[in-house]
Amino acid sequence: MVKTSPNRMRSVTEARGGLNALLADAEDGITTHIVKNSKIVAHLVPSNALILDGAVDLLDQMLTRLALDAAADSARWFANGRLASAGDFMGELLAWTWSTDQHVFCYTLAQYHRALERHVGQEITREQLVPGLEAALAVAMSHSEIRDVRSFLNEQPYWSDYYPKANGQLRPQ
């Protein structure tokens, strides 16, 4: 997974013409994103980049453990029937997953939500959860990015597609 950097995007034509310079950048630890038809189609990464090629189970385990730990830590912020904040760490983790892979964002959030419910001992609706997520995301995202996350979380497919796979049924509001 690679966090995209808008100033490191190059068209296929630019990349082809400047491959030697991009390879030198990679040797210096700089990632470049190759774009075709306004879509990132490849990443040129340094040789020491952390790659989980074929290790999806390992990534799932790492994200689940991080989500469980963050839920235990942020359970204290669930008061008066809502989550005040998911905490800076969870905000940074969710912001990273949002910018790298939406499926991973959904998986991580689902694990966090279920763990938070276990810690506070009750079901937590999206209305109780989302404001605390937005507060946490503010440590790593702009207002417009948070608005995009909010819009996404207000869509029914997220709640029906991911929560049944995260240790039980969620009753969407």
Walkthrough of the structure:
The structure is a single chain. With 173 residues, this protein is mainly alpha-helical. It folds into 2 domains: 6-44, YefM-like fold, CATH 3.40.1620; 56-165, no CATH class. It contains 8 helices and 5 strands. The strands form 2 sheets. The protein has a 3-stranded mixed beta sheet with strand order 1-2-3. A two-stranded antiparallel ribbon has the order 4-5. Helix 4 (88-100) packs across helix 6 (126-137). The chain is elongated. The two termini are 32 Å apart. Residues 166-173 have low confidence and may be disordered.
Q: What are the salient characteristics of this protein?
A:
173 residues; mainly alpha; YefM-like fold; 2 domains; three-stranded mixed sheet; 5 strands; elongated; disordered C terminus
